[in-house]
Specification:
heterodimer; A: mainly alpha; 9 helices; B: mainly alpha; 62% helix
């Protein structure tokens, strides 16, 4: 029997299993296939670099002034900490229960146990609930400026990346723990966005 | 890509408002990565712009002394994968458990760049992305897994799938070959 392609690729990348290494020494077909995989990689690496067919700099330059350099991470953390502190107090007064997702986070952090369907659906429901709150908050005060806009944009970027990761895992029964962690991260990021909007509402002039 | 000796100079200039030298220094590798992953020029151009906007926004928090290309490559890879998602190009069914059969050697084929370019363009988008990021850009399966929010084994199976399909395309869809009896 020949080596599986994944085994051949591991051997090509310098990480052969002992069994694969032994097999390669006695199977000319697999050794030839390994050589072929190396040749394909070299050919791919030898493909010419590409240049954009048109100069992108003028349009990029026009967009740059709209994009303020984000404040240094320390400043972001300080702003986020202030927002969290305020948001926690405010939400506590409004009866908004931050404790529920926190509890779930502790449960998930305890070990590699597979999340139950209830836990996953709970995180998804929490995500939908926070999105609905966010929609109402954004509708109430859509104008964003300065460092708040940058911080919110950064969190939105992270949510987009989490969404990408979730979409890649959807439909697969594998990696349910990872899927749960991603939904938890999404809930946390949405929670941060809600808190920042609440903070902004509170400090903005009436 | 080798570390550029003038990277600190590029960053200093960019922080003072002159961003173009940094853009020019990395324009081609970023476009190449985006174009190879996305397969379409227009989307690659947008990814280039989004990448450099992100680079520009992140300049204040950039640590001095590190090499720029791994960071810019990571941003570009992330943006390209986001573009795949936006275009719903990643909706490929996952391989069934146990679907991998032992490989049979295939007929010989010629590796010329034109055929290779065509074959690369014909790959499913996510497989093409993993192939390019691993075999050309040199990302490890762990790094690709982090970008995809998946596991290294997922990245490995995608790479194998990409090579299988690439081989089929290059060999013109022919299959066959000698038997091998060793274990």
């Amino acid at each position: 029997m020949h080596l599986r392609l994944e085994e051949l690729l591991a051997a090509r990348d310098g990480e052969p299993s002992p069994e694969a290494e032994e097999h390669l020494g006695s199977c000319p077909s697999c050794a030839a296939r390994l050589g072929e995989l190396k040749a394909v990689r070299e050919a791919l690496q030898g493909l010419p670099a590409l240049a954009p067919p048109r100069d992108l700099w003028p349009s990029l330059r026009r967009r740059l002034p709209e994009e303020r350099p984000r404040p240094a991470l320390k400043a972001l953390w300080a702003a986020a900490a202030a927002a969290v502190l305020f948001g926690t107090v405010w939400l506590g007064l409004r009866g908004f229960r931050l404790s529920a997702p926190e509890t779930r986070r502790e449960v998930l952090a305890e070990g590699p146990a597979e999340p139950s369907a209830d836990e996953l659906s709970g995180l998804m429901a929490e995500s939908r609930r926070l999105e609905a709150i966010l929609k109402r908050l954004e509708a109430g005060n859509p104008v964003l400026k300065g460092s708040t806009a940058s911080a919110i944009a950064e969190i939105q970027d992270r949510i987009a990346l989490v969404d990408l990761q979730i979409s890649l895992l959807q439909g697969s029964n594998k990696d349910r723990s990872l899927l749960a962690r991603l939904w938890k991260e999404r809930v946390d990021l949405l929670g941060s966005l809600v808190e920042m909007h609440l903070f902004r509402h509170a400090v903005s002039p009436a | 890509m080798a570390e550029r000796p003038d990277e600190r100079f590029l960053v200093d200039k960019a922080r003072r408002g002159d961003f173009e030298p940094l853009y020019r220094a990395f324009e081609r590798p970023v476009f190449t990565l985006a174009r190879r992953i996305l397969g379409r020029t227009e989307e690659a151009e947008e990814t280039v712009q989004e990448t450099f906007l992100e680079v520009f926004r992140s300049l204040p928090s950039l640590r001095n002394g590190g090499s720029l290309w791994p960071w810019i490559r990571s941003v570009a890879s992330s943006k390209a994968l986001m573009a795949l998602r936006r275009k719903r190009l990643v909706e490929e069914p996952l391989p069934e458990e146990g679907a991998w059969e032992p490989e049979d050697p295939l007929p010989p084929f010629d590796l010329n760049s034109l055929d290779l370019e065509r074959a690369l363009g014909a790959l499913p988008p996510l497989s093409r992305a993993v192939l390019w990021l691993h075999d050309v850009e040199g990302l490890t399966h762990e790094e690709i897994a982090r970008l995809l929010g998946s596991s290294p084994s997922f990245s490995k199976s995608r790479l194998a799938r990409a090579h299988r399909r690439l081989r089929e395309i290059l060999a013109g869809g022919r299959k066959g070959g000698a038997a091998c009896t060793s274990a």
